[in-house]
C-alpha cells in the first residue's frame, strides 16, 4: 500500500496509447477495456483516466463515484451481451492484497456455474 504512483505502470501506458488495449467503453474520466489474461469470457477492467491513485485508499471520492457508475454501466452491458449467470466484481490493493498493476482498477468477471474458473 506504500510508495508512489509509477507513471510507467501498464495501465498508464495503455492510457497514453503506448501499448494497445481493446476498449469497450470510455468517456473523459473512465476507461473500460478487456483484460488480456481473462479469468473468464468477457473479463473487463475499469480505470480512472485522470487520477494517479494506485489503489482504493488513494482515489478521490468524486473520481471513485465516476468509476463506480461506469462499473455498473459496463456490468449491465456485459450481462446483456453475454448473459452470464453471475458477475464477480473484484478489486485488489497492494502486492500482499493480490494487486499486480498499481493503477486503481476494478475487475468485472462474468461467471457460469458449468464453466471452469481460471482465477
Ligand atoms: P490486479 O491483480 O492488479 O488486480 O490485476 C491486474 C490485471 O491486469 C490482471 O487481471 C491482468 O491480466 C491484467 N493485465 C496485465 N497486463 C495487461 C495488459 O497489458 N493489458 C490488459 N488489457 N490487461 C493487463
Automatic annotation (TrEMBL):
UniProt organism field: Brevundimonas fontaquae
Residue interval(s) of motif Histidine triad motif: 103-107
Protein name: HIT family protein
Coiled coil: none
Domain HIT: 10-118
Span covered, complete protein: 3 to 121 of 145
Amino acid at each position: 500500500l506504500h510508495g508512489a504512483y509509477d507513471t510507467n505502470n501498464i495501465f498508464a501506458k495503455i492510457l497514453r496509447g503506448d501499448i494497445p488495449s481493446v476498449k469497450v467503453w470510455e468517456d473523459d474520466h473512465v476507461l473500460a477495456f478487456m483484460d488480456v489474461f481473462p479469468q473468464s469470457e468477457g473479463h473487463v477492467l475499469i480505470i480512472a483516466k485522470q487520477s494517479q491513485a494506485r489503489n482504493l485508499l488513494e482515489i478521490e471520492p468524486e473520481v471513485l463515484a465516476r468509476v463506480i457508475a461506469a462499473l455498473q454501466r459496463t456490468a449491465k452491458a456485459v450481462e446483456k451481451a453475454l448473459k452470464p449467470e453471475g458477475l464477480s466484481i473484484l478489486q485488489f490493493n497492494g502486492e500482499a492484497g493480490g494487486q499486480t498493476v498499481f493503477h486503481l482498477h476494478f475487475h468485472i468477471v462474468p461467471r457460469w456455474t458449468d464453466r471452469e474458473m481460471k482465477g
